[in-house]
Amino acid sequence: xxxxxxxxxxxxxxxxxxxxxxxxxxxxxxxxxxxxxxxxxxxxxxxxxxxxxxxxxxxxxxxxxxxxxxxxxxxxxxxxxxxxxxxxxxxxxxxxxxxxxxxxxxxxxxxxxxxxxxxxxxxxxxxxxxxxxxxxxxxxxxxxxxxxxxxxxxxxxxxxxxxxxxxxxxxxxxxxxxxxxxxxxxxxxxxxxxxxxxxxxxxxxxxxxxxxxxxxxxxxxxxxxxxxxxxxxxxxxx
Length: 238
Prior knowledge:
- The chain is an alpha/beta fold and 238 residues long.
- The chain contains six helices and nine strands; from the N terminus they run αβαβαββαβββααββ.
């Protein structure tokens, strides 16, 4: 198995709970997305931000579900993900991507869908997040992007409650003081609210797309934000 960046503090005692909640939420998001499941067309899907991790049940789960439905999936990541071919033989792997804000070596509108599940909070500062959204849109006709809601009471990466509601600079200082330097670095964790995601999508996608941002609930509050966008001139899936 390939080694992977530990975004979710796997050694924490809450990790197994978080994994189960995450898997349930991602399945709900997946089933609620208009993938054209009842149609005959095979969709070309770009999964951006795949992880080499093959231990957690929620890792790359949507890749498996898409392949099970007969769709064509291409994965891309800043990590080394070629070992995923062993688990998913039909999965196509792009060359290792450079971190944002660089462009991706992918032609415009190459895919029917771009999938970015729990990635945008890990690409860095706001300008990099906007660039990430723009690249998702540039490469595809439609996009599904998910990210944790900053205003959920539990921060799923650090497993700490409430302190992520503080101003971001103060939150990061506290994390560093607690020895959680990885998550205290904006390059590794930059949570967003619904209004922030909507503003970034408006800036990144402009008038070419129509989009909506909805919430999915878990543990008593909206836990995840779901952005679904479609080009205004996109052809109907048939």
